[in-house]
Amino acid sequence: MFQITFSLTLLLYIAGLFAANSAFAQNEENTLSKLFGDQVNTTNEKNTSAVCRGCHGEDGELNPLTGRVHHSNDSPDAIKLRSGPGDPEAGREKSLLCQGCHGEDGTSFDTKVPKLAGQYGEYISKQLRNYQTGVRSHQIMNAMAATISDEDLDDISAYFASQPRMDGNDSRNNPVGQHLFFHSDTSRAHMACVNCHGISGKGLTPGTVMFPVIGGQHKDYLLAQLLAFKYDDRVNSPNAIMNKVARALSDEELDAIADYLAEQ
């Protein structure tokens, strides 16, 4: 019963995003003004209207479709929220083996190994549990995850989540990737990445197991995962939403999105 309820909730959420993007596609720059009139503005100043705070919190963040937003991603409250139920201090020592590949602070040097710095703790925990059960497959990670207890798993995840968020150099030099990230194309069921992953891919819903931080991640890793979703080599996203999203785009478009996100 829980699975049915969860699936229906997710489908309604996704359907709502598609419906919203049908309107957004008309004119992204002034969408919020069209939808909410005098309640919002789309200028370069921070928007503190009640409508915007409902989705973007109290920081007065701006229209997600314009790419202009105020971030406070590494504030103490934000770090605590994204760390999840684990103990970051305990996780520091427990993660020593993980640090060999993922880096002491969660910033890996091998571009095929994901950065974990500032990733949502509960998302990391979910991936580890998927490796434990075989839902997600990787020769090294399946073996590593099998040795970790539930408590240790949450502590390790919290440690990496508590680190300063992964970052690129903010060059934004891929206009194709940027357009696909911010703009939906309902004619082929492409939903703009920003809707689930937030401005610059830095996350939208702290504590979620569904929508990870992807901005600033290695391009090689991002592209490998997008292609794995497209060709069903990876199938652990809720209701296979990422498989559907990736299949709507060409390999070249996925490469452009990965290139854009790696710079954020």
3D architecture notes:
By secondary structure, the chain is mostly helical. The protein has two domains: 2-30 and 168-262, Cytochrome Bc1 Complex, Chain D, domain 2; 76-161, Cytochrome Bc1 Complex, Chain D, domain 2 (Orthogonal Bundle), CATH 1.10.760. 50% of the residues lie in helices and 0% in strands. The chain has helices at residues 2-24, 31-36, 50-56, 76-83, 88-94, 96-102, 121-133, 139-145, 150-161, 175-182, 194-197, 219-230, 241-247, 251-262. Helix 7 packs across helix 9 (150-161), helix 12 (219-230) crosses helix 13 and helix 12 runs antiparallel to helix 14. The longest helix is centred in the first third of the chain and has 23 residues, at 2-24.
Brief characterization of the structure:
With 264 residues, the protein is an all-alpha fold. It is 50% helix and 0% strand. The radius of gyration is 18 Å and the shape is globular.
